[in-house]
Amino acid sequence: MPASVLIADDDPNILRALSFLMQREGHSVRTATDGRQALDAVEEEKPDLVLLDLMMPRANGYEVCRALRSNPGHAGVRIIMLTAKGRDADEQAGLALGADAYITKPFAISDVTECVAQVLSRPATGARPTLRRGSGA
C-alpha cells in the first residue's frame, strides 16, 4: 500500500537512491537534509514513515526520534533508523527511543524495501517490535 515517506539523511547520494527506491515502490516521498528540517517537515505534513539517518547536523537521529515519540500527535509515525553505527549499543539506543526498526549501512536494497513493507504493514499503535536489517552490499 502506498505511503508517505520522509527520508532524512545528510548524504545527497543516499537521499537520491532512497527517494528513487521509495518512489519505485509507489510511495510519495519528501526529503530533509538535517534533523531540524526533518522535524519541521513532520510538523508541516505528518508522514506515515520516516527513514532516519542517525548522524545528521542540527539534530541527530536520536534527537529527532525522541522529539517525535514525545509528541502524542506523532504517535502513528513509524521510524526506521538508517545508520553506519552498527554496534549493538547503538541499535538498542535507537529502539529504546521508539524506532520501529534499525538498518545498518551499507544496506541491500531488498533489506530496505522489505523492512519498509513490514513496518508499514503493522498497526501504528505504539507497539514497537524489534526489526534489524543491514550488513548488505
Explain this structure.
Helices cover 39% and strands 20% of the residues. With 137 residues, the protein is an alpha/beta fold. It has a six-stranded parallel beta sheet with strand order 2-1-3-4-5-6, sandwiched between helices. Mean pLDDT is 87; it is low at 127-133. Helix 4 (88-96) links the parallel strand 4 (78-83) and strand 5 (101-104). Helix 2 runs parallel beside helix 3 (61-69).
Please describe the structure with a list of short key phrases separated by commas or semicolons.
single chain, six-stranded parallel beta sheet, alpha/beta, 137 residues, Rossmann fold
Major sheet characteristics: 6 strands, parallel
How are the strands of the largest sheet arranged?
Answer: 2-1-3-4-5-6
Order of helices and strands: EHEHEHEHEHE
CATH class: Alpha Beta
Distance between the termini: 26 Å
Give the low-confidence spans.
Answer: 127-133
Give the topology.
Layout: E1 4-8, H1 12-24, E2 28-32, H2 35-44, E3 49-53, H3 61-69, E4 78-83, H4 88-96, E5 101-104, H5 109-121, E6 132-134
Parallel strand pairs: 1-2, 1-3, 3-4, 4-5, 5-6
Helix pairs in contact: 2-3
TL;DR?
The chain is of the alpha/beta class and 137 residues long.
